[in-house]
Amino acid sequence: MFESLNERLEQAFKNIKGQGKLTDINIAQSIKEIRRALVAADVNYKIAKEFTDKVKDKALGSENVLTSVKPGELMVKIVMDEMIELMGGQAEGINLSGNPAVILIAGLQGSGKTTFSGKLAKFLKEKKRKKVLLVACDVYRPAAINQLSVIAEQVGAPIYKEVENKNPVEIATNALMFAKQNGHDVVIIDTAGRLAIDEVMMKEIRSLKETIVPTETLFVVDSMTGQDAVNTAQAFNEVINYDGVVLTKLDGDTRGGAALTVKYTVGKPIKFVSTGETMDTLDVFHPDRMAQRILGMGDIVSFVEKAQEQFDEKEAKRLEKKIKKNKFDFNDFQSQLKQIKKMGDIKSLINMIPGMSKMTKNLDIDDKAFNKVEAIIQSMTLEERARPELLNMSRKRRIAKGCGHNIHEINMFIKQFDQMRKMMHMMSKGKFNNAMGGGMPGMTRP
Q1: Cα–Cα distance measured from residue 355 to residue 297, given in angstroms and rounded to the nearest whole number
Q2: Is the CATH number 1.20.120.140 carried by domain 3-86?
Q3: pLDDT tens digit string along 185-213?
Q4: What is the pLDDT of residues 109-132, one digit of tens each?
């Protein structure tokens, strides 16, 4: 995420790092590089220039103050503050007032509206404790209703659909009546993708909004389309005057232009960012945290929040007792893997830790490595999972055949698991003395 922008900004800061103070010359050099970095990230040149002019003014005003702060650090701080302001300053909540609250989802074809609708339903259901109803109002795209039905089942939310009805306004109106009768707190209406130049479709979404009067209207954009996403967001806002923006596919090869400038251009906040296809990968947009990630500082707050969401105090106490008795088994390990996977893709998680993004930049960290480990564990009997010491050579051969991996991989995994279990046991006893000696289970050394 934003790797190219991060690298270019680092290069810009090199003009100042190591120098004794900020001067007109090194500020000018750095500002020039920052502007180039922003334009390369698909930020409109006018916005990039206005941004760098503000940074320049603040930097020049700091030439003779804060002498205890290194010039490079001061410039990074100025850029970060301006970036936070550019992206909206602070996180914006979603409006859930109303009985029920009605959330209308709009956007271009292929922007990820339906997937986002499911993610939002899961988010509101689990984090806000709301009774959510999904409504299928995309009557044009083949299999759109089926897709939303599958997603609704995944997130455990009911769906309202009228397969034969081709009038989105009627479907939405009927859905609201159904929601009131059945005590739903929130109604999420998934609509068809449309182009800003398609007058008929734009009139339809405007009519839909005017009829149901949603509590919140969210515009979903594919962040990988860069500045085009910002232009489209502006065109849609002129028609339906939405309340907030959702950036999807933020884990793709995105340069950052949309995230940086949509608030400035449209005047509407980014409310959510979505990464990946799984239903757990939706986050509230925090401008300060995003600025830190763009500047390579990580996002430890979001990392801790994700960990806390998966944290189970009773489970932790149970595991602590087992570790102290050196009884940690494959069932426990598999349980921990599932919790880690729920937090998101591993590389994104690692990059949230300050300083780790540079270390992992050229590493291919594949989440599928966990699939291999799980396949090995699932090929064991219940008794073998609970008692790892039973795994003799004949059992290992059977497991290898069952999971499709060779005996060397089985041995390597079991050896690493034993080392990890020994390390955890010694740490619980306060006797940790570099017991691990190996790598993470399932991650063999190159």
Answers
A1: 6
A2: yes
A3: 999 999 998 776 678 888 999 999 999 99
A4: 888 899 999 999 999 998 899 999
pLDDT at 433 (0 to 100) = 44
Name the β-bridge partners of 248: 222
How far is CA 39 from its chain centroid?
A: 24
Question: Domain 101-297 adopts which CATH fold?
Answer: Rossmann fold (3.40.50)
Fold entry, domain 305-428: 434 Repressor (Amino-terminal Domain) (1.10.260)
Long-range Cβ contact pairs of 385-390 (< 8 A, separation 24 or more): 385/329, 385/330, 385/331, 385/334, 386/329, 386/330, 386/331, 387/329, 388/329, 388/330, 388/414, 388/417, 388/418, 388/421
pLDDT digits (tens, 9 = 90+) for 126-179: 889 999 999 999 999 888 999 999 999 999 999 999 988 999 999 999 999 999
Contact 263, 82 (CB under 8 A): no
Where along the chain do its domains lie? 3-86, 101-297, 305-428
